[in-house]
Write a structure and sequence with these properties.
Bound molecules: 3-methylbut-3-enyl trihydrogen diphosphate, magnesium ion
CATH superfamily: Decaprenyl diphosphate synthase-like
Order of helices and strands: HEHHEHEHEHHEEH
Largest sheet: 6 strands, parallel
Structural class: alpha/beta
CATH topology: Undecaprenyl pyrophosphate synthetase
Helix content: 40-55%
C-alpha cells in the first residue's frame, strides 16, 4: 500500500483518502510556502515565469489532495509583502497569473465544495484582481469543504500591526478595555479569524525560514522542509509530509503522555 502511494505512478483518485492514518492524527490546518519556482525554471534553462506557471499546476494537484484527505484548512503563500521588490515584469506576470488561475479554476473549486478565502492586503491589488478575488470568495462563501486560504500581498508582521491598529481603535472608541486584549481576542481579529491555528508548515526548495508567513498562527506549528522545488512537489510528497506529521508528538509545553 505504502509503495503504491509513494511509487512513481500518479496518485489514483481518492487514493489519498486510503492513507492508513487515523483521522485524529491528521493536521487540521496545513500551511504551504510554495518556494522554488525560479530555481526550478533556471535549472531547466527556462525563464522564471515558466516556473510560476508550472507552480500553478502543482497547486491544482495539492488542493485536490487536500480535498481527498478532507483537510479542514489548506493555506498557501502566493505573494508576500516583500515580493514587490522583484522586477516589475515578474510582479505583473504573477498578478496576471493569479487572475487567470481564479478565472480558470474557480468553477471547479466550487463544484468540489471548496471555500476560498484570501488573507493579506487584498485592497492594494489591481482593481481587476480585487474583483476576481471578491467574486471567488462570494461564489464559494457557503461551501462546507476544504477551506482554501490564499495569502496574497501578505506579511505576518503587517497582519499583526493591522490587527493591533484595529484593536487600538476600539480601545480609543471605548468599545474595548486594554485588558481585554488577550491572545484569544487578538486571534479573533486576525485575517485568519475563524480558522484553527496552523498545525503543519511545509516549505519547498530547501530554505528553512518563515519569510514573514503566518507569524502568529505558527506559534506551535510543526515544520517540514524539502529540497524539492514547488513545481516538482507531487501529491506523494504532500502525503509524505502529512505522514511524518502524524507520527510526531506535540506537547504544547506540557509533558509527554500527560
Ligand atoms: C515562489 O518561487 C513563488 C513566489 C514567491 C511568488 P520563487 O519565485 O521565490 O522561486 P525562487 O525561490 O526564486 O527559486
Ligand atoms: C516566500 O518566498 C514567499 C512566497 C512563497 C510567496 P520568497 O522566495 O519570497 O522568500 P525569501 O525571499 O527567499 O525569503
Ligand atoms: Mg523564493
Amino acid at each position: 500500500m505504502w509503495k503504491k502511494i509513494f511509487g512513481k505512478a500518479p496518485l489514483p483518485k481518492n487514493e489519498a483518502a486510503l492513507l492508513d492514518i487515523e483521522r485524529s492524527r491528521l493536521p487540521r490546518h496545513v500551511a504551504v510556502i510554495m518556494d522554488g519556482n525560479g530555481r526550478w525554471a533556471k535549472g531547466q534553462g527556462f525563464l522564471r515565469t515558466v516556473g510560476h506557471r508550472a507552480g500553478v499546476d502543482t497547486l491544482h494537484d495539492i488542493l485536490d489532495t487536500a480535498i481527498d484527505l478532507k483537510l479542514e484548512v489548506l493555506t498557501v503563500y502566493a505573494f508576500s509583502t516583500e515580493n514587490w521588490k522583484r522586477p516589475h515584469e515578474e510582479v505583473d506576470f504573477l498578478m496576471r497569473l493569479f487572475s487567470e488561475y481564479l478565472d480558470k479554476e474557480e468553477r471547479e473549486m466550487h463544484e468540489k465544495n471548496v471555500r476560498i478565502r484570501f488573507i493579506g492586503r487584498v485592497d492594494e491589488l489591481t482593481p481587476e484582481l480585487i474583483q476576481r478575488v471578491r467574486h471567488a470568495e462570494s461564489l464559494m462563501k457557503d461551501n462546507t469543504g476544504v477551506n482554501f486560504c490564499v495569502a496574497v500581498n501578505y506579511g505576518g508582521q503587517d497582519e499583526i500591526c493591522r490587527t493591533a491598529q484595529e484593536l487600538a481603535r476600539k480601545v480609543q472608541e471605548g468599545a474595548l478595555s486594554p485588558e481585554e486584549i488577550t491572545p484569544e481576542s487578538f486571534e479573533t481579529a486576525l485575517d485568519t479569524k475563524e480558522l484553527p491555528p496552523v498545525d503543519l508548515v511545509i516549505r519547498t526548495s530547501g530554505d528553512m525560514r518563515l519569510s514573514n508567513f503566518l507569524l502568529w498562527q505558527t506559534a506551535y506549528a510543526e515544520f517540514w522542509f524539502t529540497e524539492t522545488n514547488w513545481p516538482d512537489f507531487k501529491p506523494a510528497c504532500f502525503l509524505e509530509a502529512i505522514r511524518d506529521y502524524a507520527g510526531r508528538e506535540r506537547r504544547f509545553g506540557g509533558i509527554k503522555g500527560k
